[in-house]
């Protein structure tokens, strides 16, 4: 699991806790100086990163470019800048570098470090579009957009499978008389891939392959485990088989993108909104001798077409981008477009 937190101190607080797709790896003690911190960061990416080969990165060339810039007198600010410049070519929106201090420093790789949360508001959906808004939990809201059109908002898939089984059993009973459904995955933070497969299975009628995954497992950049096939299949006591429209934005990420792949394999759907973030891999979490924290993406996740969409994302069938001013005024153009499509 990978969740994107905007608050620096929240990130520090949860860093060492267990999560679904992050492994904390403990290595040998390394002397704490700028040169040794650089060496550890570079070598651990060299040994663990899946993206060096997936994205055809010349990691040795980056060492040759940036290692000479690091000296015993290099300041923390200078070292942090060198690190971010060296890591930038990975274009990894799951990559985080955290440097506690006064002031603290934080780097988020890929698009995650460039985007703002300003194109979606669940409050707008609740207050201006739902005829009835029911909050099952802080991460699940459902209701109806019209007498025959249902709506489900999912924020993550990070709880246990039984939670989603009970939630969808209750929601499907509520939506049993609808003729179509809008599934809102905007600002989906992450979760467990197995839960995403289960949720998609509540829409499936047959078993279908939807992705493959393999993990970096050796010193060579091309060393990976044998690929694992991921399937979506009918799950639970019943499935929603009526028309489905899925809403996405740039903050639909990680297991939310896995869920989208699984849904597209499970049944015909229409994706409306913006391209997803493009961040699929699990991460290893590491700590440098100077107390800085960082993540390394260790998996190669592929769609059924055999391609990696890391740093690319999943493009919508119908592109609609909400504007900040419109959202602030209570308008959701993405949802309005979905209402013209679902039938």
TrEMBL record:
SUPFAM superfamilies: ClpP/crotonase. GO terms for biological process: proteolysis. Residues 1-20 form the signal peptide. PROSITE patterns: PROKAR_LIPOPROTEIN. GO terms for molecular function: serine-type peptidase activity. InterPro entries: ClpP/crotonase-like_dom_sf, Tail-specific_protease, Tricorn_C1. It holds the Pfam family Tricorn_C1. CDD domains: Peptidase_S41_IRBP. The keyword Signal applies. Residues 117-321 form the Tail specific protease domain. The keyword Signal applies. Keywords: Signal. PANTHER family: INTERPHOTORECEPTOR RETINOID-BINDING PROTEIN (PTHR11261), RETINOL-BINDING PROTEIN 3 (PTHR11261:SF3). This is S41 family peptidase. It comes from Adhaeribacter radiodurans.
